[in-house]
Write a structure and sequence with these properties.
Number of domains of chain A: 3
Oligomer: heterodimer
Strand order of the largest sheet of chain A: 1-2-3-8
Order of helices and strands of chain B: EEEHEEHEHHHEHEHEEHH
CATH class of chain B: Alpha Beta
Strand order of the largest sheet of chain B: 6-7-8-3-9-10
Structural class of chain B: alpha/beta
Number of domains of chain B: 1
Number of helices of chain A: 12
Largest sheet of chain A: 4 strands, antiparallel
Number of strands of chain B: 10
Structural class of chain A: alpha+beta
Shape of chain A: globular
Order of helices and strands of chain A: HHHHEEEEHHEEEEHHHHHH
Strand content of chain B: 15-25%
Radius of gyration of chain A: 27 Å
Radius of gyration of chain B: 18 Å
CATH architecture of the largest domain in chain A: Orthogonal Bundle
Shape of chain B: globular
CATH topology of the largest domain in chain A: MetI-like fold
Largest sheet of chain B: 6 strands, mixed
CATH architecture of chain B: 3-Layer(aba) Sandwich
Distance between the termini of chain A: 43 Å
CATH superfamily of chain B: P-loop containing nucleotide triphosphate hydrolases
Helix content of chain B: 25-40%
Number of strands of chain A: 8
């Protein structure tokens, strides 16, 4: 009986699983016993207690009498905020830099090459600390803030940019949602060609009327210098700006290389075919090369995005309170280190698995049909 | 008709629409680094003429026809296509490319688009045709290459022969004045060669100006007005197909024919 391949593999796997479970049980019971012996409480009850820790800046509202779990959410929101912005900007810049590196213009290609080499070959923490040190060395005091673009100011205290506020009522939001659903539905039906032609404009018109009825107040709040500080606008502190700019520069280098590889992976024959049909370089790039390249670069790009989430923990180096920094404070304040570490691991795992599944979904959706 | 290279006379072509010359190459030279790929190519092709170009691999046949729509740049000499001289002028290059169709050995269809989208891409983006109209034109040509039922499939789902016919239809959608074929049947399984050649024959019968790099002797006999034999970057012999295959003039032609006919 033992020579039967199936039986044998079941026995071996059964033994392995038993061993792993036994080992885990041993670890858990020993830990609990040790903690109990030293009188350290374990459990997640502390999450609802007031935290009394300070989070220097947050995109969600936070006060120090809020409970621990809210502090965790606030830290997580900061991390998601940084990661999302860095992923967005480095994707856009990476596409541009990666394609420009292949340009026949030596100056443009060379500049992009320098960017890629600097970004790829320096440890991100060095880049961050270097950038952070620049704030006080290069930028002027707040009274003489640089004004590179209308409404954008840069000084020692960070960036100030115009704030955009969109104000809609609950009914309005519902109407918009309804109109958008209708529009999407109409678009889908129109593409599949099962709709009389007038229906689409009708639905679009309904959407426009819906938007108008929804009474949206859209306002741009420009910052104004009042003599000692800026009033209005959104402030980006030096810490937040450093982590955003630094990680974007760093990640762009990698994204650019992935993009370059992707463009090169599309065969020369595709360019030949495009040229022979009279398409310009730009159109070949946009209509033929980039759509095919996307399929190749999604998996490595996803790894880069995951790296962004993990690298966002470097925010601790410049003093921006990201999720890890907040958790650190919480752990030392509450002394619930084991629970804390599990929360940290769980949160990063959840974030990255979400990213991966989104990438996998996208990859499946755009896969080229073969046979 | 017994033309040898030196006997061809060059009449300077004028940019006129009723100019009988489709393509004129005068003293064309090209180098890849130090390697001399095209040596003093002189060739004039009349409108409606069908030319089959053959020769051993590495003889510069593909390079020569790729020069005609500037997929390759020539370094010396003059190439005039449809009355327009090929220079660095991008506008003129694009003008020529719009009117010169090309079919490749490896089809080079766009794998991410359906067959119909492959056919309508250039008419929509280059000729600024409306999508509906472009699709009508595309269906017309798919009908002609006898695969209208495959319009909504992706190229990867078709056989090699079908893919090559789609590639021909894709070129025809731009209503070209000249068609270039770069070994269109070399990458096909033997049983699919015929369907592609049949398509090319019917195109020839309609009076299309065609330049085919091909070793298909049957095809050459059936449609070619002239056969051009190239070796080591030179045009060695230009002859009628009947004469070229039965009694070639040049030693190198004889050697080549002996090799491909066993």
């Amino acid at each position: 009986m033992l020579s039967d391949a199936k039986t044998r593999s079941i026995i071996i796997q059964g033994m392995l699983v038993t061993a792993v479970i036994a080992f885990a049980a041993l670890l858990v019971s020993t830990t609990f016993a040790n903690l109990k012996a030293r009188g350290i409480p374990i459990g997640f009850d502390f999450l609802t207690m007031p935290s009394r820790i300070i989070i220097s800046e947050a995109i969600l509202t936070y006060k120090s009498r809020d409970p621990y779990f809210w502090a965790i959410v606030v830290g997580l929101a900061n991390t998601v905020f940084i990661s999302a912005l860095v992923i967005f900007f480095s994707s856009v810049l990476g596409l541009v830099v990666g394609i420009t590196r292949l340009s026949s213009n030596p100056l443009a290609a060379g500049t992009c090459r320098v960017w890629v080499e600097i970004a790829r070959n320096s440890p991100p923490i060095v880049l961050l600390i270097f950038l952070y040190s620049l704030w006080w060395k290069v930028l002027p005091p707040v009274g003489e803030a640089l004004n590179p673009l209308p409404g954008v100011y840069a000084s020692m205290r960070g960036f100030v940019v115009p704030a955009i506020s969109i104000d809609i009522g609950m009914t309005g939001a519902l109407i918009i949602l309804f109109a958008l659903t209708l529009a999407a539905l109409g678009y889908g039906l129109a593409r599949s060609g099962r709709l009389p032609p007038l229906v689409v404009p009708a639905i679009l018109a309904a959407g426009v009327v819906g938007l108008w009825l929804a009474d949206i107040r859209f306002a741009v709040d420009f910052p104004v210098f009042t003599g000692s500080n800026f009033r209005g606008g959104s402030e980006l502190t030096p810490e937040l700006s450093t982590i955003l700019v630094g990680l974007t520069i760093y990640t762009t280098g990698f994204v650019a290389e992935i993009v370059r590889g992707g463009v090169l992976s599309v065969g020369r024959g595709q360019w030949d075919a495009g040229h022979s049909l009279g398409l310009s370089r730009g159109k070949i790039l946009r209509l033929v090369v980039i759509p095919q390249m996307l399929r190749v670069i999604v998996p490595p790009l996803n790894s880069q995005y995951i790296n962004v989430v993990k690298n966002s923990t470097l925010a601790i180096a410049v003093g921006y309170p990201d999720f890890l920094a907040v958790m650190n404070t919480i752990i030392s304040k509450s002394s619930h280190s084991i629970e804390g570490v599990f929360i940290i691991l769980g949160a990063y795992l959840a974030l990255n698995l979400t990213l991966s599944s989104a990438a996998n979904w996208y990859n499946r959706r755009i896969a080229i049909v073969e046979r | 008709m017994l033309t040898s290279v030196s006997a061809i006379r060059h009449v300077p072509s004028l940019p006129m629409t009723n100019d009988p010359t489709a393509v004129e190459m005068v003293g064309v030279n090209k180098w890849y680094g130090t390697f001399h790929v095209l040596k003093n190519i002189d060739l004039t092709i009349q409108r409606g003429e069908k030319l089959v170009i053959c020769g051993p691999s590495g003889s510069g046949k593909s390079t020569m026809i790729r020069c005609i729509n500037r997929l390759e740049e020539h370094q010396q000499g003059r190439i005039v296509v449809d009355g327009i001289e090929l220079t660095g002028d991008l506008k003129k290059i694009n003008e020529i490319r719009r009117d010169v169709g090309m079919v490749f050995q490896h089809f080079n269809l766009f794998p991410h688009l359906t067959v119909l989208e492959n056919l309508t891409l250039a008419p929509i983006w280059v000729r600024k045709m409306r999508r509906k109209e472009a699709e009508q034109v595309a269906m017309h040509y798919l009908d002609r290459v006898k695969i209208p039922d495959q319009a909504h499939k992706c190229p990867g789902q078709l056989s090699g022969g079908q893919q090559q016919r789609v590639a021909i239809a894709r070129s025809l959608c731009m209503s070209p004045k000249i068609m270039l074929f770069d070994e269109p049947t070399s990458a096909l399984d033997p049983e699919m060669v015929k369907e592609v050649l049949d398509t090319m024959v019917s195109l020839a019968e309609e009076g299309m100006t065609m330049l085919c790099v091909s070793h298909e002797m049957g095809f050459a006999r059936q449609v070619a007005d002239r056969v051009v034999f190239m070796d080591q970057g030179e045009i060695v012999e230009i002859n009628t197909p009947a004469e070229f295959f039965s009694s070639p003039h040049h030693e190198r032609s004889k050697l080549f024919l002996a090799q491909i006919l066993h």
